[in-house]
Amino acid sequence: MKQRLVVIGAGMASGRALEHLFAADRDGWDVTLFNAEPRGNYNRIMLSPVLSGEKAFPEIVTHDDTWYEENGVTCRFGEKVTHIDRAAKTVTGETGAPLAYDKLLVATGSNPFIIPLPGHDLDGVIAYRDLEDTNAMIQAAARPGSKAVVIGGGLLGLEAAAGLKLRGMDVTVVHLMGHLMERQLDEAAGYLLRKALVDRGINVLCSSNSKQILGRDGKVTALMLEDGTELPCDILVMAVGIRPNTGLAAEAGLATGRGIHVDDHMLTSDPDVLAVGECVEHNGAIFGLVAPLYDQARVAAQTLLGEPAHFVPREVSTKLKVTGCDLFSAGDFGDGDDREDIVFRDPARGVYKRLILRDNKIIGAVMYGDTADSSWFFGLMKDEEDIAEMRETLIFGPAYQGGDPLDPTAAVAALPADAEICGCNGVSKGDIVAAIQGGANDLAAVRATTKASGSCGTCTGLVEQVLGVTLGDDFVIPAAQSICGCSDHSHEDIRRLIKSRELKSQAAVWQELAWKTRDGCHTCRPAINYYLLADWPLEYQDDPQSRFINERKHANIQKDGTFSVVPRMFGGMTTSDELRAIADAADKYDVPTIHVTGGQRIDLLGVKGEDLPAIWADLNRAGMVSGHAYSKGLRTVKTCVGKDHCRFGTRDSSGLGIKLEQTLWGAWSPHKFKLAVSGCPRNCAEATCKDLGVICVDSGYQIGVGGAAGMDLKQTEPLAQVASEQEAIDITIAFYQLYRETAKYLDRPYKWIAKVGLDWVKERVIDDLDMRQALIDRFAISQSVYQKDPWAEHAKDRAETYQPVADLTLQAAE
Amino acid sequence: MTNWIDIGALDDIPPRGARVVRTAHGCVAIFRTGDDQVFALDDRCPHKGGPLSEGIVHGASVTCPLHNWVFSLETGLAQGADEGSVPSYSARVDSGRILIDAAQLSGQLSDRSAA
Q1: Which domains does chain A have, with CATH numbers?
Q2: What pLDDT does A354 receive?
Q3: Which of B8, B17, B70 faces A806 most closely, judged by CB atoms?
Q4: DSSP SS3 for A717
Q5: A479 touches chain B (CB under 8 A)
Q6: Strands ordered across the beta sheet of B56-58
Q7: Contact at 8 Å (CB) between A368 and A350?
């Protein structure tokens, strides 16, 4: 009998707790995860790089739909929990009946503190807490000449200010205290930081008290300071602190103070209710940095598993995630009679280092401008090492502690094995060295085996240095991400070299590009196979053994090992005969589930692998071919019924959709490719979130590209508006072929466009008619090979391979 | 004691591919590597039961099609950060025919460690 665990809040702590829980006992728990935000767990501390544009949101998602599905987590995202009934042991969400739990994990996080200034409820006054806030800031920054005011010169406020500045806004930081980040930095470091920000064009006002937020028509227009100064702004970001979110827990009668009270086992005052994260209070302390939250998560998971575990708060250090501002702070750096300082300054380089000592031990460290030695100092501090003997040279760092010559990696080399490299995940240098000696010889492998640098990412450089020190000359810090461990080349280089050196077989690629493995791996083989068949359709022979199972078997594998079968319905149109044949096939092969897909197709789920050739042959007989619902290739063209039936329709949208699908079907591409054609701007076929969408208007056809409605939600960008249907078809083919020839494997068109630029695409597909025609010609050559029904081919020639090679069930008695 | 039985021709399996043999105790996957070695493993990933015979074969390894766990065909052990193992059986090629040890196969339920 599985235990029912309900988790309230999908933050960094609860996500990590579930990981630990499933790692130890994957099948013992029936988990329901509520989240008020309409999404699952993501790495909240990485919102700053998202704001600055250095990362995209999908890169910071820590648990995706697949993960929840694999672990059987019932997700109720976008739903607030309204009530906990501890007597009945149930939780009630906004929608739905009370849900029973055996154990409850409260991870409601924190709320941003909003100063109740007059005008704080105006439109445009936001906190900096979640993706919605981040997106609101990105949107505001998109308007040319827009201005922002950030109240709060702490970690979060400065990351917001730097991000908004990078996006081109005019930014002013208003800070109540005398210097920035006063909780983490002393005055000197705060000064250097301020100078660096001012150099970037950010206006910084310290010792400034806000008085009132001014607005017009319900929207913010300016911040007025105590001294009467008015700072005009289009948005006002309040980043002045957070408060544990204890409302729900308090209402349920759990003991709370500043946060929800927990003991060393992360148990609240109710032994069946645990709490982790920013919402808790432990021995009077509350938590805002991620490292202790991860420790809490581990302890909570162990408590749930019935293992003895105790949460011990540890020393934490702070780094600011603003590119180009290197600062570090840890421990206690207030003044006191029993303390001594060692200070190093290099004003020309903007470097400041200060160590705070008591009884010959480091109790605090602040660094600005050069933080290379910070882990070493942090290690000495945590271990309470006596530094009397090296005191004279201590401030110069580990490289000087033996008179060794200066080497950029010497600081890392000198670190003891237990020095912490990744603060977020508590990974020591020794852990990383062990992983490297175990075969993890690049950053990705180290990250996969140890999680080091997998959270906030600021230690990435350190991890690479540990790799460098451990592997010596064998490790070269890679400039671009290589395709996989088999090669040092990037996808882009490989595509280029396949074309320029006319490599026409996988063996040629492996040999000429110095593959390190005998015959590749599951990551590079499908990519290379695609590049070769796209660039050399006539010369290269597609290799089924280099395809993922779905493409090799022309059906989508399901989690129980059965497959799904989706016949093609051109333009989403079907007939009663086709439907009858589908119904007959479903009956004949005991298909348990029939689903209508988002692309206007019918999906038969749960077909046994051995039955595939037979069901395909039956569907072929009724005139249907593979719908390629499994492929990195042309998927579906979704349409509305258009002017034949609809009173608003301007043109024959379904007719165009059918023509497009008849032209494009069967083609492979770097990733799946979905189209839609709508008959009027009401857009019933949802053409504006497709890889390519056509909207018919009175004057012609509007073609948009680069839409998406998956992990990312993207609206198409206009590519062209044309008068004739034939030109719309031509442009569609040319666009698809250009994508097929130049995109990186597994990049959807919107990602590809983001890299090459829409103008670059337009030059080739719209402006240069010769180039457009050349693309169309090359696509036709490819289609002469690849536009064939794989179902018919497999049913005829390869049906045997879908059966066991031998059946020994009769000889089992031997 | 071994009992080699013929289960088919080497060419019934494509290079870097696999087929299954149905046994009384479930399916066994027969793998053929790029250099024509053959290996026999239970057709069941210890992680989520994925059919290993449907995975991509590279070197002397196979990647499970469900969640990309990688197993050594030689030992049946999971590679990298994942931990687990798949029961494996003796298999060899003789004159273009694939032979597997039926003695191990029939003993697979009662004494898996022998495999």
Answers
A1: 3-110+244-304 (3.50.50.60), 125-240 (3.50.50.60), 491-547 (no CATH), 634-786 (3.30.413.10)
A2: 86
A3: B8
A4: strand
A5: no
A6: B56-58, B61-63, B70-72
A7: yes
Show residues of chain B in contact with A449, CB under 8 Å.
80-81
Contact between A292 and A300 (Cβ < 8 Å): no
Which pLDDT score, from 0 to 100, does residue A811 have? 54
pLDDT (mean) for A467-486: 75
Residue B22 lies in a domain: yes
Q: With respect to residue B115, please indicate whether it lies within any of the assigned structural domains.
A: no
Contacts of B68 in chain A (CB under 8 A): 522
Give the neighbor-by-neighbor strand order of the sheet with B26-32. A806-807, B17-23, B26-32, B38-42, B88-89
Query: Measured between CA atoms, how close is A58 to chain B, in angstroms?
Result: 19
A218 CA: distance to closest CA in chain B (Å): 51
Distance (Å, rounded) from C-alpha A416 to C-alpha A123?
Answer: 52
User: Which domain range does residue B51 map to?
Assistant: 4-110
A814: nearest CA partner in chain B = B106
Are A401 and A393 in contact by the 8 Å Cβ rule? The answer is yes
Say whether A806 and B59 touch across the interface (CB within 8 A).
no
The A residues from 498 to 517 touching B (CB cutoff 8 Å) are 517
Total domains present in chain B: 1
Does the beta-carbon distance from A546 to B56 stay under 8 Å? yes
Across chain B, mean pLDDT equals 87
A612-621 and A576-588 are packed helices; what angle lies between their axes, rounded to 10 degrees? 160
Q: Would B12 be classed as within a structural domain?
A: yes
Distance between CA atoms of residues B7 and A806, nearest Å: 6
d(CA A111, CA A7): 18
**SS3 call for A503:** coil
Helix (H) or strand (E) holding A157: helix A155-166
Residue closest to A704 by CA, chosen among A682, A676, A680: A676
The CA distance from A188 to A717, in Å, is 48
Q: Is the pLDDT of residue A405 over 50?
A: no
CB-based contact B58 A520, cutoff 8 Å: yes
How confident is the model over A140-168, as pLDDT tens digits? 888 888 999 999 998 889 989 988 988 88
Rounded to the nearest 10 degrees, the angle between the axes of helix A443-450 and helix A429-437 is 110
Q: Is residue B102 part of a domain?
A: yes
Which range of A198-207, A504-513, A562-571 scores highest in mean pLDDT? It is A562-571
C-alpha dihedral, A521 to A480 to A428 to A57, nearest 10°: -90
Closest by Cα among B27, B40, B54 to A544: B54
Q: CATH number of the domain at B13, please.
A: 2.102.10.10
pLDDT of B25 over the 50 cut: yes
B36 part of contact set with chain A, CB < 8 Å: no
Q: What does the alpha-carbon distance between residue A172 and residue A513 come to, in Å, rounded to a whole number? A: 51
Closest partner residue to A518 (CB to CB) among B20, B50, B59 is B59
